[in-house]
């Protein structure tokens, strides 16, 4: 293997590649570069120092906010800050144009220049403790070699041998202290190894970017943009470029809520949005204004606040969407006069009402003359967003035109800036305030059009987060970060497309690269692949704000571009005109020179591209993307997010009726995103429908017509027909209950027919028996069809005709993707009837399961044969026993499985560790394991399903760390703790809602107050019911450090347990591991301590308790448990579960061996009980026990060293 050489473009990440300089910016840069190169050529024979100053001057002109100078022996460095006190960010090794012997070349990588830069880097990392180096560059001004710091880390800093030698050289401990010796004898051999291992090095030569025919130095136009990008601080110093779609713009969010009359606060661990506290309320904020009007209408007090918030959210959704539309109109027409959300155009709520329903909800020819004259340039949108909601029309709500205008105090941290360059203060009209506030931010719908004069960019991704926050004000729901949705969507879509293309074209591709080879230069093959991709069906059954569907949409278009199968609406190939990427969770479109595409009306090619992207998106949204959510607000926001993606690519066309240029209307994609409880359905997936009435074909045609119509009256008629057809399917369903009923009717009819040869009495008895069974069967069928449990359910069997076969049979989706809700069934959130339903419908889930497990099992039914699933779920899925059947189902039924654990905190507002699970059928059989850490995803191991099926848990760290065989050896030479050596029992539970006698409070708030008062605890023995109480912190290795607390023991406790559990000889072990050499704490007691479930009791001991304490407290037990149950893969350190402690391995041993360890444990207990402990003796005894226990497990010296080196 040799170095992995990459180009200038490849050296820059996609975010950098999306930087679009203005023409004047490129011109200024070009002049600076030309001046530098001109001076360099003129002074070619000057010294290295002289030429280095030329480079320094050039870089300073481009990076005015960074200090640039030498540093110690380093030729040149770009510092991370403005002065020399900051750290070094980019290291340079500079060579003169005449010093060809030391300059790195593509043919001579291991040059002195490379050796020097490695030495500089290691000196900075080792002895200056600099963690902020981004790049290392070797250059002579024309030839540039660029190496990322991660390559230096991988090949040099993590090279223990090299680090040891460099450190010894620094301390004069090597054969020579000459730098030449360091370069040639220490560093050069390791560079050879790095080259062999494929170190990634970018190279470009500025001489190749020059126009050769020019007499003076001139930069080729095709190279200028890429060179501009390379020399930006965003590239060289990895500066943040765009608003991170994963981050909430807190300033925007807080002020928006203030205008609405709301604020965010914490309720327990959940953040919720609620009405401002009385002291902060403003009469003319939206919520307060609405409440006043609702009160005048005599709307009940208990409905006023909730309805006011709902109305405010609906109106704000519309206004934010219109702000994006306004941004598009201004951009498309290069004319600021297209702005319409301004106080001079909309100075009353009545005018805003007219905008909503007299402009955006009406075609141009249907608007009245006054409105058309004022807002004729604003398009008709054909969106249900601009149809009045039921609440707006009901007696319990109002429409926005009913609100009066008035002044409110400006927010203390407002974005509004006055003429004095300071934040504005005082009062301002609410409408003027809203529009000025919105205008303080940049609402460009693409990162390529960001206005540098504005505040932070509020693009579609950031707005998606805002939408989810304000619409999920009740839920405190979690927003899946963009880097996660991007990764999951990209990986899953690419796998699904390979399968789809193979199926459609009869190919046998394994990768996207294989498809590229299959397409070759054939336009016909490109069309076929494009059509196959268009047939994809993707569903998110817990769709939320639609973030996953937006990411899938972008990834499909980017993949089509990558495969070169992009066509316009007329079927003409456009892959030679543009290239598409997903950057920072947004679709970026560039021309072939790397310039970001900008839609220009009147430009034929520009219009062709814009129209093509719009129709590509439209087709994907109409035919490929589906979603369901139980929350109507989430569904509305999902629809809104998808419309925004279309809005970005909307284009002008000549309207036949009005004859004016009109922005294209949005399709009715709302039918693909439905409200419902995905987990509930009365019709199973194998239900059969009688298709003789051809209703199914009519249903499919109606759905297609609904999506395409832009006539609201027609849309309403089609919707009514669809609903009637769906209800009629109830009568056509062939279910087990109906089959049973039909069979009984047939049998009863036979029994009722009097035969001349049968006894009438016999027939009548049979008839009576069957009649009773028939009555019961009718009840069962009626119960299923009319059960209110299913009222809010999702009838997957009929709601999406696109995933049904020609005969109406359920086929399923190609891909099910998402972030399902994480709700514990044991948290009293489900009724007994729902729990019973879940047990019947999702048999792979434990009765105490989390809802993510139910959604995972639902996905098994939703996905078609040959399809795939991609979910992000809690990583407890890997190790908790109740998910074992789900794990085994995946490993037995799916061929290509990927399990990726995240060590990063994915959700800022949720203390939960997560993992990504991917699974596909009909692919080469393998299980891939990976880890997300530091924002990077690394695949660390590959194994077979069989090897994981033989284990109780999935342990990524142990498999990737190569300790699986060691764990197996430990298990082979031992027996599990429970049954063989003792009985492990949970402690008591003092508090739980509705438990105990008398019952503890049922109400959530009352119980919280009750528990906080700690009514059963005391610092003294108040009466005979009080017993000594141990908390987890009282339990230490080999001793108890009792805090002096007492607990009143009795039936009033939620779960007091059998009192015998807390009496007599027993071992105690803490469930929560500690980060130490020894992670577990166990000791012996025969006193009557009681304890809660943070401690487990081990009773009915069958061997010496001291022997067991020695084993449980040994290092090998810590190593085994942490590796076996994969606690290394979690950030939030969990408790060891009862079932896991029961499985602890106790080594096979003789009585003599047990006694030897027991004696040492006794000495340790005695020493630990002293006030002054001899730590050297403790360490010695611990080591002796560790070695003896490892011997009992049969470990060899290498395996023992692995355990010795283990430490959390």
Helical percentage: 40-55%
Separation of termini?
A: 37 Å
Q: Nearest-angstrom radius of gyration?
A: 35 Å
Number of strands: 38
The main pleated sheet reads as:
9 strands, mixed
Strand content: 5-15%
Q: Indicate the overall shape.
A: globular
Helical/strand content category: alpha+beta
Mean pLDDT: 86
Which strand order do you get reading across the main beta sheet?
18-15-12-21-22-24-23-25-26
Count of helix runs: 42
Number of domains: 6
> Poorly predicted ranges (pLDDT <50, ≥5 residues)?
754-760
Keywords: Coiled coil, DNA-binding, Methyltransferase, Restriction system, S-adenosyl-L-methionine, Transferase
Domain Type II methyltransferase M.TaqI-like: 624-907
Domain DUF7814: 245-458
Protein name: site-specific DNA-methyltransferase (adenine-specific)
How does this structure look, described?
It is an enzyme of class 2 (transferase). Residues 760-787, 1151-1198 form a coiled coil. Residues 7-244 form the DUF7149 domain. Pfam families: DUF7149 (PF23653), DUF7814 (PF25120), Eco57I (PF07669), TaqI_C (PF12950). Helix content is 43%, strand content 14%. The protein has 42 helices and 38 strands.
In terms of topology, how is this protein built?
Blueprint lengths: L3 E3 L7 H4 L5 H20 L5 H15 L5 E4 L2 E6 L8 E7 L17 H15 L8 E5 L3 E6 H9 L2 H11 L8 H18 L3 E6 L15 H10 L2 H4 L13 H11 L1 E6 L2 E6 L10 H11 L4 H33 L15 H11 L9 H7 L14 H4 L13 E3 L17 E3 H10 L20 H12 L10 H24 L6 H8 L3 H12 L3 E3 L6 H17 L14 E6 L2 E6 L12 H20 L1 E5 L2 H17 L3 E3 L6 E3 L9 E3 L12 E2 L5 H14 L3 H17 L4 E2 L1 H17 L7 H27 L9 H4 L13 E6 L13 H10 L9 H12 E12 L9 H10 L2 E7 L11 E7 L5 E8 L2 E8 L1 H5 L6 H5 L3 H9 L1 E3 H4 L2 E3 L18 H9 L4 E2 L7 E5 L4 E2 L2 E2 L5 E3 L17 E5 L11 E4 L4 E2 L3 E5 L5 H8 L2 H10 L13 H5 L2 E3 L3 H18 L6 H18 L4 H9 L3
Parallel strand pairs: 1-7, 4-5, 12-15, 12-21, 15-18, 21-22, 23-25, 30-36
Antiparallel strand pairs: 2-3, 3-4, 5-6, 6-7, 8-9, 10-11, 13-14, 16-17, 19-20, 22-24, 23-24, 25-26, 27-38, 28-37, 29-33, 30-33, 31-32, 34-35, 34-37
Helix pairs in contact: 2-3, 4-7, 6-7, 11-12, 12-17, 12-23, 17-23, 18-20, 18-21, 21-22, 22-23, 24-25, 26-27, 37-40, 40-41
């Amino acid at each position: 293997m040799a170095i992995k050489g990459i180009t200038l473009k490849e050296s820059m990440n996609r975010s950098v590649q999306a930087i679009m300089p203005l023409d004047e910016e490129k011109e200024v840069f070009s002049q600076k570069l030309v001046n530098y190169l001109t001076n360099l050529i003129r002074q070619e024979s000057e010294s290295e120092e002289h030429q280095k100053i030329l480079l320094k001057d050039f870089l300073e002109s481009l990076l005015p906010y960074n200090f640039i100078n030498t540093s110690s022996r380093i030729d040149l460095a770009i510092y991370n800050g403005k002065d020399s006190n900051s750290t070094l960010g980019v290291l340079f090794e500079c060579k003169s144009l005449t010093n060809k012997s030391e300059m790195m070349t593509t043919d001579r990588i291991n040059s002195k220049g490379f050796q020097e830069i490695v030495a500089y880097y290691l000196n900075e990392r080792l002895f200056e403790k600099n963690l902020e180096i981004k790049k290392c560059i070797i250059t002579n001004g024309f030839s540039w070699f660029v190496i990322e710091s991660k390559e230096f880390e991988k090949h040099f800093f993590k090279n223990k041998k090299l680090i040891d030698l460099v450190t010894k050289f620094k301390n004069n401990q090597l054969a020579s202290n000459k730098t030449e010796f360091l370069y040639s004898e220490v560093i050069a051999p390791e560079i050879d190894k790095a080259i062999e291992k494929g170190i990634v090095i970018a190279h470009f030569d500025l001489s190749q970017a020059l126009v050769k025919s020019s007499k003076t130095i001139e930069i080729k136009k095709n190279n200028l943009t890429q060179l501009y990008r390379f020399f930006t601080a965003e590239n060289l110093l990895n500066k943040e470029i765009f608003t991170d779609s994963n981050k909430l713009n807190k300033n925007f969010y807080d002020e928006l809520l203030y205008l609405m009359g709301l604020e965010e606060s914490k309720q327990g661990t959940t953040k919720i949005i609620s009405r401002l506290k009385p002291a902060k309320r403003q009469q003319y904020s939206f919520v307060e204004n609405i409440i006043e009007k609702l009160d005048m209408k005599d709307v009940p007090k208990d409905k006023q606040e909730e309805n006011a918030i709902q109305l405010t959210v609906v109106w704000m959704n519309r206004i934010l969407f219109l702000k994006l539309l306004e941004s598009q109109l201004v951009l498309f027409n290069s004319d600021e006069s297209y702005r319409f959300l301004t106080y001079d155009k909309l100075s009353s709520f009545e005018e805003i009402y007219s905008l909503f329903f007299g402009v955006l909800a009406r075609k141009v020819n249907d608007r009245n003359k006054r409105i058309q004259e004022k807002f004729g340039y604003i398009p008709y949108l054909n969106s249900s967003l601009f149809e009045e909601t039921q609440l707006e029309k009901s007696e319990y709500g109002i429409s926005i035109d009913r609100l009066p205008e008035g002044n409110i105090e400006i927010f203390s941290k407002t974005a509004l800036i006055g003429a004095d360059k300071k934040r504005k203060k005082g009062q301002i009209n609410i409408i003027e305030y809203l529009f000025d506030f919105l205008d303080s931010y940049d609402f460009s719908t693409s990162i390529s059009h960001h206005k540098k004069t504005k505040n932070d960019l509020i693009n579609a991704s950031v707005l998606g987060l805002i939408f989810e926050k304000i619409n999920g004000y009740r839920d405190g729901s979690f927003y899946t970060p963009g880097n996660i949705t991007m990764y999951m969507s990209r990986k899953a879509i690419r796998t699904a497309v390979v399968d789809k293309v193979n199926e459609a074209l009869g190919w046998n591709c394994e990768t996207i690269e294989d498809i590229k080879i299959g397409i070759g230069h054939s336009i016909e093959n490109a069309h076929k692949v494009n059509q196959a991709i268009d047939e994809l069906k993707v569903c998110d059954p817990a769709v939320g704000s639609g973030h996953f569907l937006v990411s899938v949409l972008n990834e499909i278009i980017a993949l089509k571009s990558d495969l070169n199968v992009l066509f316009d609406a007329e079927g003409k190939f456009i892959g030679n005109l543009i290239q598409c990427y997903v950057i920072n969770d947004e679709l970026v479109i560039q021309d072939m020179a790397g310039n970001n595409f900008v839609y220009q009306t009147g430009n034929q090619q520009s219009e062709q591209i814009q129209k093509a992207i719009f129709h590509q998106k439209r087709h994907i949204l109409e035919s490929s993307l589906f979603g369901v959510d139980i929350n109507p607000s989430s569904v509305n926001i999902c629809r809104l997010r998808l419309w925004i993606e279309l809005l970005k690519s909307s284009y002008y066309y000549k309207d036949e009726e009005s004859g004016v240029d009109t922005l294209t209307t949005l399709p009715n994609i709302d039918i693909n995103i439905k409200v419902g409880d995905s987990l509930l359905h009365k019709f199973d997936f194998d239900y059969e429908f009688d298709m003789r009435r051809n209703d199914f074909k009519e249903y499919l045609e109606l759905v297609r017509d609904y999506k395409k119509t832009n006539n609201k009256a027609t849309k309403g008629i089609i919707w009514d027909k669809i609903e009637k057809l769906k209800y009629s399917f109830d009568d056509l369903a062939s279910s087990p209950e109906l089959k049973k009923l039909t069979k009984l009717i047939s049998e009863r009819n036979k029994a009722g027919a009097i035969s001349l040869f049968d006894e009438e009495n016999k027939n009548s008895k049979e008839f009576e028996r069957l009649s009773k069974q028939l009555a019961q069967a009718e009840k069962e069928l009626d119960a299923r069809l009319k059960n209110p449990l299913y009222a809010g359910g999702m009838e997957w069997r009929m709601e999406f005709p696109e995933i049904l076969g020609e005969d109406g049979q359920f086929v399923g989706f190609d891909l099910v993707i998402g972030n399902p809700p994480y709700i514990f069934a044991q948290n009293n959130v489900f009724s007994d009837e729902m729990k019973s339903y879940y047990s019947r419908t999702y048999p792979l889930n434990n009765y105490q399961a989390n809802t993510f497990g139910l959604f995972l099992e639902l996905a098994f039914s939703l996905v078609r044969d040959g399809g795939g699933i991609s979910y992000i779920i809690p990583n407890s899925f890997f190790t908790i026993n109740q998910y074992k059947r789900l794990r085994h189902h995946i490993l037995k039924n799916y061929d290509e499985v990927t399990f990726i654990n995240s060590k990063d905190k994915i959700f800022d507002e949720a203390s939960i560790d997560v993992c990504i699970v991917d699974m596909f059928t009909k692919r080469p059989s393998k299980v891939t394991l990976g880890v997300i850490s530091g924002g990077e995803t690394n695949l660390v191991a590959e194994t077979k399903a069989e090897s994981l099926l033989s284990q109780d848990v999935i342990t990524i760290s142990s498999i990737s760390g190569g300790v699986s065989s060691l764990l197996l050896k430990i298990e082979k030479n031992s027996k599990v703790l429970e049954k063989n050596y003792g009985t492990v029992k949970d402690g008591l539970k003092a508090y739980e809602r509705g438990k105990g006698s008398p019952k503890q409070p049922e109400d959530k708030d009352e119980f919280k107050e009750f528990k906080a008062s700690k009514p059963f605890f005391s610092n003294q023995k108040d009466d005979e019911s009080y017993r000594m109480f141990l908390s987890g912190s009282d339990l230490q290795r080999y001793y108890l450090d009792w805090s002096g607390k007492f607990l009143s023991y009795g039936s009033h406790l939620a779960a007091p347990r059998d009192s015998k559990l807390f009496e007599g000889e027993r071992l105690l072990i803490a469930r929560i591991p500690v980060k130490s050499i020894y992670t577990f704490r166990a000791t012996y007691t025969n006193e009557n301590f009681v304890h809660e479930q943070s401690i487990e009791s081990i009773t009915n001991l069958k061997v010496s308790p001291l022997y067991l304490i020695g084993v449980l407290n040994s290092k090998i037990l810590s190593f085994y448990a942490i590796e076996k149950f994969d606690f290394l893969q979690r950030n939030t350190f969990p408790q060891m579960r009862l079932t896991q402690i029961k499985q602890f391995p106790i080594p096979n041993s003789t009585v003599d061996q047990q006694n030897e360890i027991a004696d040492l444990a006794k000495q340790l207990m005695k020493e630990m009980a002293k006030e002054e402990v001899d730590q050297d003796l403790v360490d010695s005894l611990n080591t002796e026990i560790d070695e003896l226990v490892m011997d009992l497990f049969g470990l060899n010296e290498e395996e023992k060293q692995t355990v010795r080196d283990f430490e959390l």
